[in-house]
Batch of 4 targets.
Target 1
Amino acid sequence: MSKKNGKNGKQANYEPKPEDKFSFGLWTLANRGRDPFGDAVRPTFPPNDIVQVLGEIGAWGVNLHDNDLVPIDATPKERDKIVREFRAACNESGVVVPMATVSLFFHPVFRDGAFTANDPEVRAYALQKTMRAMDLGAELGAKIFVLWGGREGVETDACRRADEAVKRLREAVNYLCEYNIAQKYGYRFAMEAKPNEPRGDIYMATTGHYLGFIPTLDHPEMVGVNPEFAHETMAGLNFMHGVAQAWEAGKLFHIDLNDQYPGRYDQDLRFGSANPKSAFWLVKFLEDVGYDGPRHFDAHAYRTENCEGVKDFARGCMRTYLILKEKAERWNEDREIQAILKEISAAAPNVPKNGRYSEKGAQSLLAHGFDKDAMLRKRLPYELLDQLTVDLLLGVR
């Protein structure tokens, strides 16, 4: 089923279209259900087959780590054959590659980190591997390059000073920006934060950490963030608030959509499956501000599923986003909701403006007499506003 009654009794279409810019990582559909306590439950899902399925279900894009596609020890000849066939599969399925990234966490050589590792040889190898991943992504047409430092952290701070790790990370990102310029790739780098796992603590724990780090780079205009729903929610944070700060700073280059229960390991649940209200506010924000980047689903199917269930998972991510997008449109058009918003934002007569500072404005503000009792009498009906939102989400409004 793809349609139901939408606003004003019209049929709402929840089938994805290319302009929705829905993308999935190769690693998401290829996830075989392996976890720390149990082996794989699904067969291997080859990259070219994944692309075919994504085209069938209406996805717009596919993203990849370097080794999702090309084995880490592939020869140049093997690498070129794999890339050539993958590009042909993308063209045949009408699927684009908007983003590429690099695995600096899976191979045991990165047991102490990559860009922040104590061993200079490991740091050099991490740069080489990333540059080659950038070459791969550029060959496939990617214009966004995500950097997730999954191993850039510690179990004990005895191993290095934290400020030294930040310096090493800055040096690496500066190097990659220069390589990007030299190769004329036109990448925008998107930094992805996470508080912990697989390390006990990861240095850049939240999107806010990266927003503080980026202005210290040689080319800050080239670097933004890739916030992930699960990563911020793990720490009990309000994901939409982090996304909003990134957007306001002009740094929302990419976004990872999934779901997560707070305070637990990284679950990567289907988008909207655990926190539909939080997902609603996120979708509403992205649509209200006109975010036009990829809407990337970094999640995977339940371990109970077979290959058909993986397709159900992917369809569900896109469908839920589109349902919540339609709900957001209805919220913005709801007369009672909009009247409440207008009421709570209305200013009393003669209130001095307090935007940009001026000497005249400051004097006017200092001279003004505020009636605190009158301000306190103004009703802020947030209980009603929230219940109207819940009514709308639950389909009774």
Target 2
Amino acid sequence: MRVAFPLIDRATWTGGYNYLLNLFRVLHRYAPDRVTPVLFHGPDASEADLHPFVDMPEQECVVSPLFDTSRRTQRARRGGLALLRGRDAAAEALFRRHHIDVAFESGGYYGWRFPIPAIAWVPDLQHRHRRDMFGARAYWQREIGYRALTLGDRVVMVSSHDARRDCERFYPRMRGRLHVVPFSVHVDAITQAEPADALRARYGLPARFYFLPNQIWKHKNHRVVIEAVAHLKSKGVPVCVAISGQGHDHRHATLFDELRARVDEAGIERQVRFLGLVPHADVLGLIRASTALINPSLCEGWSTTVEEAKALGAPMILSDLVVHREQAGRRAAYFDPQSPAGLAEHLARGLEAPLPDPLARHHDAKQDSERRLAEFAAAFVDVVGSARAGPMPQAESSALGT
């Protein structure tokens, strides 16, 4: 089955780009005879973004200005016309020329009468839970997009049962078309990472450090980590947290400067280290070498960094969200994301544990990781097959992964 995937712009949404790249790697490895992923991208796509895809064996890529990331206004207009007219005729013609069986929708909309079966991926419903994070325009852009998915009979794919419940609650017309496909991650890039000692030296980190590799967006809740570190410093407890990720939130342009200012005010520049964007192999190496991964988000879909920590056998300290407990279970410690003191307790406790053996942790986690990857591939193949076969009867609605 030939599936069309639009390239996700890494600069705009790093998590979405990483999800797509990981999905391609998993399909190539675990389902090469079931699904052929075809990547569609604009002429403006960067070589750095394309290289990991092109480097895969026999990967098909199609270049078209329809998928130029620089033409966001034009693409939004096409999405609006698809909503009004029911179909994106230009995308349909392009997909038919390349014998596409199923189209994967992520950040775009092909229309409620689009004749090629489509899978709409809904990562989360953040705008519904955290209305305060969105201006009116950003909120309604998302809301209209999700309401459009209730039209027609496209398959809707989510990554968690928590997201499925949200979709059924907010958009009842999605019932019968929802599939839960929890993703897992491929960590082959860990073989390219430097040894833990070398990584720590290069980034100026001590033997014990915590790692927070989330984009610096407001809902990722970096502030609670900064306040927890400041709280511990006031008690004479030295803790180091390394933070990597893109430092610009397009919805909250001053956020990064505000966080840096708070770090300076609290005098914790040595305890809170902003690393900026780092190579993915280094992200994996730092997760593996850390005392624990931190994810303090106020809202999540299915976290890539949590999956990476699971695959590497790294301890985790996570905000107490339903989706985090669904994803990590007993592998993690949990804290109230509004409580710096609660997080501080976990950080201080981690300093008392023996220094980790990263290689041993990874070795112990590897077999379970392989199982989850195979299940992810099989579940995605099933969704593609369901989309191609047509809508399910209402009574047959079920969630994969139960």
Target 3
Amino acid sequence: MHTPRVRFHASPGTIRAGWFERDFMQHTVVYREPGRYAGWPANYGIWSWGEEIVAAFTVGSHHPGGGFHTRDRTRPFTAVQARSLDGGRTWTSEPCRCATPGGRGLSADEHVEPELKISSFLDAGERILPSPDPIDFTAPELVWMVGRTGLAAGAISWFYTSLDRCRTWSGPFALGDLGLPGIAGRTDGIVDGPHQLTVFLTAAKSDGREGRVFCARTEDGGRSFQFRSWIGPEPEGYTIMPASLRLPNGDLLSTLRCRRRGPDINDGCWLDLYRSSDDGLSWSLVGRPAPSTGFGGNPATLTRLPDDRLCLIYGYRDAPFGIRARLSSDSGETWSDEVLLRTDGGCHDLGYPRTTLLPDGTLVAVYYFNDSPESDRYIASTRWKP
């Protein structure tokens, strides 16, 4: 198999001379259908057991006149998952069989007209209840996934669990409002014991707008959650979509998607890294591992490699559009130049990755992608051994 060459550069727009060989890199289409808009794996999740991988995302209808995202807001979105049995080399798609209020699209309210939103059913009185029994988060094949309505004040979030590698799902189970004006949850959490799970979520800010990241914890198997701390100060723009892990020394790290507030959507979009040395009670800013993520910004994944390096993977929404990575050998204090995993995207409407680590040290990143501004949006993956 030919070994692709991966180019590094020191900062956006500045390509450093030289090529660097990597063990291998392979790009694969995970899900693609003509006329469909498949997107945003970061809003859902990815899980693996050896060579078996499941990634979840959402699928709607493509509409070239849809705006920043070329989706048709008058048609429903549905939750889909793709499964690979060979470490991400090939994939098959299947329904994501999780019940949603009103049977509407999971975590897609901001992309559809009001009558298609989950929030319309919750406003009409349908309720999401806590888990009736404690959940063992350390069960061998248990995974959990967060769902939500909107992004700002009034947003409601909940979660699901699966005990059989995502073939069936239980829930929805309430996360509660934690005394906050709204919670826009994506799947991000750390299991610390059979009944203890620390979750990282985004709340509406004091002005009701999206968003400010916080962490919460359950110690009774998901029956109740308690607010633990804010991660960073309330921003002028937003901090959203955390990606978190625990280091071997017990410290917590969380990478936040950040944006300034301004008249231009490209008025500053980057990634910040925070650290907690007291089990999530307080946080300090470590640095800015990605000074720019392009037009409108993009979330990251954060993975600890077998040699204890950290790997950050994120979409990049300026030309050359694509997927990028950075590596750290000192627990996030400093980061390598960008690794351009791919630069063949057709426009800004891509990214939102999820990443899983295979037993041999291979990373599999799943994200949404496009070939041109007018083309359908599809789910792709990259296998890469840093």
Target 4
Amino acid sequence: MIEPNLATMLVYLLTDLDVPREVLRESLARAVAATFNRMSIDSDTSTSDTVVALSSRAVPCPDHAAFDAALERVCGDICEDIVRNGEGVHHVIKVTVSGASDLGLATGVGKAIVNSPLFQCAVCGNDPNVGRLVMAVGKQVGATRPGLDLGRMRLTMGGHLLFSDGVFRLDPDVERHLVAHLSAAEMYTSTPPADGVTFVPPHRFPPHERAVEIGVELGLGAIGCTILGADRSHEYISENADYRS
């Protein structure tokens, strides 16, 4: 249940730099907007979403712009760690949306992709199901921006062109590269459970920091963002089906 806006997430950031309360509050709001508010494991929320920044003000801060950049970088790194350590996550999905007319469109498209159950399952199976990717974009735009022209949209995965000018750009060689990209980003594979029911991740810590890299160029403007998400696995289902509070 990680979707900021009352997500199950508690984050505490500590610094000794002398950053006044109001300045720190504004810096944190900007950093959160660009990082924590742009990730989603499953789109569901809970009741304890908190990000707190505290300063002892013990050390002079000569460059607030550098502090802001460092704060956003730290928040971004924490976000990746949260997603990578999510329940039953096999793949981290990183969607870079560009060419949007506004931030709401860019964010909505990115989250529609990472929160699509069908696309999440395809990624878990290392299946480059481009139709599901296009579906996720079209579903979001159709619901929120009916009539919007996506004729200039370009989609990539792992740097390989999948879709442009309204046409799929696939051939056997491209599909082999896509499968290789998905497989390289996979942190582990599922193994049949001993009890025939409960899938358990084979390790406690993510073995690498690779991600499934998806690019969406909408061709509508100059706004963009990056959204983090994850696939949907047997282990995710096992953990949440058996969960007891």
